[in-house]
Design a protein that fits this description.
alpha+beta; Neuro-gated_channel_TM_sf; Methane Monooxygenase Hydroxylase, Chain G, domain 1; transmembrane; membrane; 39% helix; 2 domains; rod-shaped; Acetylcholine Binding Protein, Chain: A; seven-stranded mixed beta sheet
Length: 334
């Protein structure tokens, strides 16, 4: 009887061990260190809502299975590096929100005697972004890079982004933009469509738009056209047809200038600062036409009063437009 009890206890113990092996307790996630060095930003496609950058992406982790007896690291380059890294465990960290396959230029794999693995790639990637153009052309955009493992969940791989491994070149190829603050953060990200949580590193780069292009290509021509339009109040009040011809020509020029500038911008549902400049131009040109009709009718009844009103409007219209434009610019800068 005692022998049977021993056999039963041994059977229960073996079953418990098998259950423990089948459902192991959650282990600590493997830490994977990232390094992001932005080498250049070659394009910010505002109509397409994407940007293109050249980046050196480094992924570093500890793998005891790769420890060896050598005195220095094993080094693999280019295609051999890609072939070798595919034969070992790696965290599969890639960029998120890409609009096209990444273009690989160079790759480097180093495996140290203590099992540290360093895998670096120089890539060109296109990444979708959301631009807030309300303050255009006085805007600062925030370009976001999202990095996460596309194979391992947050309880398996935890990415780390040290501040000293986050860098950007001092100059970029785009003359219209100036790079600014570069920050990174790591947080769990829940994907509702898969009901899974991944460890995500988010790198945010601020780029400030240079306004000189819009000043010389939009503001100065628009100011000249409006000055010519408001100059009609220096013509005799009775010459209504000549005055109207100048205003209509100015209006058509403003429409053409607006079309030219907006052809390179996305079709958005809100007004930018540039839009407000043109809206004000349309309003004041319309008011100028109404003012001329009123002065022409007044001239038929009281010539002296019409001349006095004409002299007042020739300064009131441009002054009011400059004031309204200044309010728009000050609001955008604050």
């Amino acid at each position: 009887m005692a022998f049977l009890r021993c056999l039963l206890l041994l059977g229960l113990l073996a079953a418990g061990l098998r259950a423990a092996e089948a459902n192991p307790s959650p282990a600590t996630p493997r830490k994977v260190e990232l390094g992001v060095h932005i080498l250049d930003i070659s394009d910010i496609d505002e109509p397409g809502g994407k940007f293109t950058l050249h980046v050196l992406l480094g992924v570093y982790w500890q793998d005891p299975a790769q420890a060896h007896d050598g005195k220095g690291p094993k080094v693999f380059r280019e295609d051999i590096a890609i072939e070798e890294v595919n034969t070992i465990w790696r965290p599969m960290v890639e960029f998120n929100r890409t609009t096209a396959p990444a273009e690989l230029h160079h790759s480097l794999l180093r495996i140290y005697p203590n099992g540290r693995v360093e895998f670096e790639r120089q890539l060109t990637v296109q990444i979708a972004t959301q631009l807030d153009l309300r303050k255009l052309p006085f805007d600062t955009q925030r370009l976001k890079l999202e990095l996460e493992s596309f194979q391992y969940l947050a309880d398996e791989v935890e990415v780390v982004l040290p501040a000293d491994k986050l860098r950007i070149a001092s100059r970029i190829s785009l003359p219209q933009w100036e790079p600014g603050k570069l920050v990174g953060e790591v947080s769990p990200h829940y994907r509702e469509e898969y009901n899974e949580t991944y460890s995500r590193a988010t790198v945010t780069l601020e780029v400030k738009r240079h306004t000189q292009f819009y000043i010389w290509q939009m503001m100065v021509p628009l100011g000249i056209v409006l000055a010519m339009a408001f100059a009609v109040f220096f013509l005799p009040p009775k010459d209504l047809s000549d005055r109207m011809s100048v205003i209509i020509a100015s209006l058509l020029t403003v429409v053409a200038l607006s079309y030219s500038l907006h052809s390179g911008l996305p079709k958005i549902s809100y007004l930018t600062v540039i839009d407000w400049f043109f809206v004000l131009a349309y309003i004041f040109l319309g008011l100028a036409m109404a003012g001329m009709v009123w002065i022409s009718n007044l001239h038929d009844r009281d010539e002296a009063k019409a001349i006095r009103a004409d002299k007042w409007l020739r300064w009131a219209y441009p002054g009011a437009y400059v004031l309204a434009s200044a309010i728009v610019v000050i609001t955008a800068l604050n």
